[in-house]
Design a protein that fits this description.
105 residues, mainly alpha
Length: 105
């Protein structure tokens, strides 16, 4: 599996759309669809914004997708109401919604 495919798998596991990933990282939306592979500069940005992603897994296919001390439940296990979500997930969604509305105007 190529690095881009692994990042797409990670995003699916976390319940993050490629659009949201693009907004979060500042990378173009097509970065995971176009071209051959990601350069070092883009990998650094991804590492900075996805601290739980095991870069050894992405690059060398070694270890698990998530770093051992960063493992979380998949996004699909989050409940739908804000009261039942983790504060981190709720805040992340609010910020993304704000950015999307701001970008549309």
């Amino acid at each position: 599996m190529a690095s881009k495919e692994k990042i797409i798998k990670y995003l699916a596991y976390k319940g993050i759309s490629q659009r949201k990933f693009s907004l979060k990282t500042g990378l173009s939306e097509g970065i995971l669809r176009a071209g051959k592979d990601l350069g070092v500069d883009k990998m650094r940005v991804i590492k900075e914004h996805c601290p739980d992603l095991n870069m050894d897994w992405v690059i060398y296919d070694e270890g698990d997708m998530l770093l051992p001390d960063q493992v979380e439940e998949p996004a699909s296990s989050y409940a739908k109401s804000p009261e039942e979500k983790s504060l981190k997930q709720f805040v992340f969604e609010c910020i993304e919604e704000y950015l999307l509305k701001r970008k549309v105007k």
